[in-house]
Specification:
Length: 434
């Protein structure tokens, strides 16, 4: 098949790398891609949100199958347009993608499906939202309803912070139209995990779990980001927990979406809070996570393309997924200043030396080549240095060995990715419980 991957981030580089290894892949394209993706796919200079142009290029290059990476083209209806043109694609319809593009819709569906999740209310009026917050007390969680690049969630620890968040989202409109409505939720305590399931509209197949690190600085300090690193598998999501997540969260949602007339196909990404009473849903995303994908696909033994195609064609029944018996860990290198203002077009060196570290792959996100042929940073999150090992600790060691070979004074990374899993491993080895 001729394959098109839509997107330009580290997630799309990982997808392209995995798809390129499949015997089903004849020719691989990526739109718009980046400097790293260009090594495994032909990059087409079409932004991921230009729906008509993407459909046109599919006809031009006789594309057989499209894998849609980011949430924005899904929310804009790219999958619908492709299917209307008879082009097979991996990703949900615009109606089903509302599970991510509207947090209010997602909470309503979860409630309808009986999924365990935080109590919530939806508000389109700032005054009413503040009155509810004053009534409920803190800590409390405030979310912009629409897409906000992973930055639209505020966990307010005091009333002043909560009211300021309402003003920022609904009055100052720092997230634009995405903040026309807010969802206010009870605060949940526990350990977060990311769980992924492939769906074909009827059947949901467990993929795997990962844990990411949202805060920008070591020790989970600082503002939230799109993700500063991840590892897989997630120790807290063992086989018993996976069974519960599928039974209590994924399967009821897929059934409810089908019954509502918007069957879900693609990958359903459940952000979970693992509490002392079991898993509770934080939110759904309707695409693979970034940087979780970089770690997960390094562990995948099955043919990635055949799995995605089976989901798109409604043929997941009876499919099994095989995994390498090892852990993987991704360290994100970002431009100094991220997630606020950051400097662009700075030169990155040492990438070949980093990639030469055994069991390491360097995934590109916000990169391009300048006229001199140098790799330059063009985005906030720029690289995902990913390694495998027999344990999370071994994968971490290899990833940071590779990070240390990269020469990029204007870049930074967290130095504690994987700390939670490694701490738990050490407890088990030493016989400590706690």
């Amino acid at each position: 098949m001729n394959i098109l991957v839509v997107g330009s981030g580290g997630r799309e580089h990982a997808l392209c790398s995995a798809i390129n290894q499949s015997p089903l892949c004849e020719k691989l394209y990526c739109a718009p891609g980046n400097a790293g993706i260009a090594a495994v796919a032909e990059c087409l200079p079409i932004p991921a949100d230009k729906i008509a142009d993407l459909v046109a290029v599919c006809h031009l290059h006789k594309i057989d199958f499209v894998v849609i990476g980011p949430e924005v083209p899904l929310a804009l209806g790219l999958a619908d347009e492709l299917r209307h043109e008879g082009i097979c694609c991996f990703g949900p319809s615009k109606a089903a993608a509302a599970l991510e593009s509207s947090k209010g819709f997602m909470k309503d569906v979860a409630t309808k499906a009986g999924v365990p999740t935080a109590a919530y209310r939806r508000f389109a009026d700032a005054g009413a939202a503040k009155a509810y917050i004053a009534e409920q007390g803190v800590p409390i969680v405030i979310k912009a309803d629409g897409l906000a690049a992973g930055k639209g969630v505020i966990i307010a620890q005091d009333i002043g912070e909560a009211f300021a968040a309402i003003d920022d989202i609904m009055v100052k409109k720092i997230f634009g139209a995405s903040g026309a409505e807010v969802v206010i939720e009870e605060f949940m305590d526990g350990e977060e995990a990311s769980f992924f399931a492939l769906c074909d509209g009827n059947v949901a197949l467990p993929f795997t779990a990962a844990q990411d690190h949202k805060a920008v600085y070591d020790g989970d300090k600082g503002p939230n980001t799109g993700g500063m690193g991840a590892y897989s598998p997630a120790p807290i999501v063992d086989e018993a927990m996976q069974t519960r997540v599928m039974r209590e969260i994924i399967e009821p949602t897929v059934t409810t979406m089908r019954d509502m007339g918007c069957p879900f196909t693609g990958v359903l990404f459940a952000g979970l809070m693992i509490t002392d009473k079991g898993p509770r849903l934080i939110e759904f995303n309707v695409r693979f996570g970034d940087p979780e994908t970089q770690a997960m696909l390094m562990r995948l033994q099955s043919d990635a393309l055949s799995l995605l195609y089976a989901a798109a064609k409604g043929m997941l029944d009876g499919v099994t997924i095989n995994w390498h018996d090892r852990a993987a860990l991704c360290v994100v290198m970002a431009a100094e200043g991220y997630p606020a203002e950051y400097k662009k077009n700075t030169v990155i060196r040492g990438l070949d030396e980093a990639a030469a570290v055994p069991h390491v792959q360097v995934f590109h996100a916000g990169t391009a080549r300048n006229e001199a042929g140098d790799i330059i940073a063009t985005g906030g999150r720029v690289l995902g240095i990913t390694a495998t090992g027999s344990t999370v600790a071994e994968a971490q060691s290899r990833a940071y060995e590779a990070v240390n070979k990269i020469i990029w004074p204007e870049g930074f990374c967290r130095r504690d990715i994987g700390w939670r899993a490694i701490t738990e491993d050490r407890k088990q080895v030493s016989g400590i419980r706690g």
